[in-house]
Design a protein that fits this description.
Elements: H1 2-21, H2 26-40, E1 44-51, E2 56-57, E3 62-66, E4 72-76, E5 85-89, E6 95-104, E7 109-114, E8 124-125, E9 136-141, E10 152-160, E11 168-170, E12 182-184, E13 189-197, E14 204-208, H3 210-214, H4 216-219, H5 252-255, H6 257-263, E15 267-274, E16 277-287, H7 294-297, E17 301-306, E18 315-319, E19 322-325, E20 327-332, E21 337-342, E22 350-351, E23 368-373, E24 376-390, E25 397-398, E26 401-406, E27 409-415, H8 420-423, E28 431-435, E29 438-439, H9 445-450, E30 458-465, E31 468-475, E32 477-478, E33 501-507, E34 519-522, E35 527-534, E36 540-544, H10 545-567
Parallel strand pairs: 8-13, 16-22
Antiparallel strand pairs: 1-2, 1-3, 1-5, 3-4, 4-7, 5-6, 6-7, 9-10, 9-12, 10-11, 11-14, 12-13, 13-14, 15-16, 15-18, 16-17, 17-21, 18-19, 20-21, 23-24, 23-34, 24-33, 25-32, 26-27, 28-29, 28-30, 30-31, 33-36, 34-35, 35-36
Length: about 575
């Protein structure tokens, strides 16, 4: 037993020495990732079925990659049909038409080909047979939750070279819309195409690129194969020995531990209650010098955070066991921001006025970003996209009824089974007299009023049934339309308020909703903004500095105006 113990100690020391002598640095890896993005970005395409009769793209978008000057595109069989027409959109906005070629459903491989003349950006095909566990890989595809026509970058590593089903398993996060999107090695070569996921965020399965080499002739023929076609021989990877695993990829937080500790000083926990439910969210300590007057800033500290997660009597945790009350100075519903003030002068704080401009460029994509967490390890991610807008989705809260107008009355025309209205025993034919005290005049007034309410809000309805007046309370519940897909069931969960932003940064941090509200930095310590929401399985969102500066200036301007009015 003693010998075994000494052997284990010796092995551990050897591994530490090996890691120290491996030459790995986060800076070198970041540079390599950005080179891959520059090399392969323009070849990663957005694909939509095209209706030749109505002459427009129609629903069901997915991803792919152009791999030669002739316009061959690799994608996934579950998204492609032979001989069907597709619209291809390149990252620079250029569009063209392509037709579906071969597909092999058993391994999910498929191919398309651009049918218009032109010179097309393309990426090089790699070899999935060259892969080793812990090799870094980069996804450049189009996650559906973003709705962006430019691809989004995600970083991961090869977790399994070949699963029992014949796929590559990687940690590059994937969701609907990414199907068929390329995953690259650090030489910028396609090694796999996104296929499917499991519940775990580490279970992202890619179609090995060697299958496209093996069945090239069959895939260039417009056919759907119920059996595997005749395989072809292909040459081995001439650069296989140049590809190395990077064990540090499995724990980048450990690599950047010292930097995280320094950046963590401006991240605090904020606790409050919303409708008697206790909430916890991060806050960002900010230095507002140059944005407010001396009187406004004297002997005070300020925090920015996520408004929808903070009630009216928040407490800021300065250290374990020490909480101080905070005053809500201003809220910005459009950006889900809140500015808090505490009567304690804290050291530090991020100087917002220093970061006057914060536009992101294509050359910055793939940069490492750090989301510090109070008394915890920070979350590491990469910058995934230039600034984008996230459209406001349908209100997740619903009542489950539709209405129409009859003889000047608003009548319930349908009650959905198992909906809140159904549970409250509302019936078809009932008249809605008032909605939380407001009279409904037109049928569409119901949808307008519903837009002001959220999940778990209680509605007080005054109704008539066959001339008899009655009242009902209805508690709104969440819609469950798309929640069945495994992409929406991941452990971290999504933020309740996650859309309707005009300007956000996108990164692939695996942030829990309660870990939002804190700052976002790069490895040089540059402040990028505040994490405002976990959007989806693949993406977290941050408000850039320009949005924060505008909010703070408007908040102080409003405070000054209120002070002046109260003194008149």
């Amino acid at each position: 037993m003693k010998k075994l113990f000494l052997l284990l100690i010796s092995l551990q020391v050897s591994l530490q020495v090996l890691a120290q002598n491996s030459g790995f640095t986060a800076e070198a890896l970041e540079k390599n990732i950005q080179q891959v993005v520059q090399q392969a970005y323009q070849a990663s395409v957005y694909i939509t079925p095209f209706d030749s009769i109505v002459k427009k793209a129609v629903g069901g978008s997915f991803s792919g990659v152009v791999i030669d000057s002739a316009g061959h595109i690799l994608s996934a069989a579950h998204a492609v049909k032979p001989n069907n027409l597709y619209e291809i959109t390149f990252p620079d906005g250029r569009k063209c038409k392509a037709t579906g070629l071969g597909r092999i459903p058993s391994n999910d491989a498929a191919m398309l080909k651009i049918i218009e003349p032109g010179s097309w950006p393309h990426a090089e095909m790699g070899w999935s047979s060259s892969l080793l566990v812990n090799m870094p890989c980069v996804s450049i595809a189009y996650p559906g939750s973003l709705g962006a026509k430019t691809p989004t970058i995600r970083l991961g590593y090869v977790a399994e070279v070949k699963t029992n089903e014949g796929f590559i398993r990687s940690t590059c996060l994937m969701e609907p819309g990414d199907s068929g999107g390329p995953v690259f090695d650090l030489k910028g070569r396609v090694i796999g195409l996104h296929s499917k996921i499991n519940l775990s965020l580490d279970d992202n399965f890619e179609i090995p690129v060697d299958l496209y080499r093996k069945y090239w002739t069959a895939l260039t023929t417009a056919s759907s194969y119920t059996e595997l076609p005749v395989p072809e021989q292909f040459a081995a990877d001439p650069q296989a020995l140049e590809l190395k695993p990077v064990p540090e990829m499995t724990d980048m937080s450990a690599v950047l531990k010292k930097l995280e500790a320094r950046l963590n000083q401006n991240t605090l926990t904020i606790k409050s209650k919303i409708k008697r439910v206790e909430t916890s969210i991060n806050g960002t300590l900010v230095n507002l010098q140059g944005l407010g007057t001396e009187n406004q800033l004297k002997n005070k500290s300020f925090l920015l955070s996520k408004s929808s997660m903070i009630g009216e009597a928040p407490l800021v945790q300065l250290k374990p066991g020490k909480m101080v009350p905070a005053k809500v100075i201003s809220r910005d519903e459009n950006n889900d921001l809140v500015l808090l003030e505490i009567d304690v002068k804290l050291k530090g704080g991020i100087a917002l006025a220093v970061f006057a401009t914060d536009s992101t460029q294509l050359t910055q994509l793939g940069k490492f970003l750090i989301s510090p967490q109070p008394q915890q390890t920070g979350v590491i991610s990469v910058l995934g996209n230039t600034q984008v807008a996230i459209a406001k989705g349908p209100n997740p809260a619903f009542i489950g009824i539709t209405t129409n107008e009859k003889d000047g009355k608003i009548i319930i025309s349908m009650v959905q089974p198992r909906s809140p209205a159904n549970i409250a025993a509302l019936e078809t034919g009932d008249e809605i007299v008032s909605f939380n005290g407001k009279k409904l005049v037109k049928a569409e007034d119901l949808a307008r009023e519903m837009a002001h309410y959220r999940i778990n809000d209680t509605l007080n309805l005054q109704l008539n049934r066959s001339g008899v007046a009655y009242k009902k309370q209805v508690v709104l519940k969440a819609r469950r339309l798309n929640e069945r897909h495994i992409a929406y069931q991941f452990t971290d969960g999504r933020s309740e308020r996650r859309d309707g932003f005009n300007q956000v940064l996108v990164h692939d941090a695996r942030l829990k909703p309660a870990a939002c509200g804190g700052p976002l930095f790069d490895m040089e310590g540059k402040f990028y903004g505040i994490n405002i929401a976990r959007l989806s399985r693949t993406s977290s969102l941050a408000l850039p500095v320009a949005v924060l500066n505008r909010f703070v200036k408007e908040a102080f301007l409003h405070t000054n105006l209120q002070t002046m009015l109260s003194s008149i």
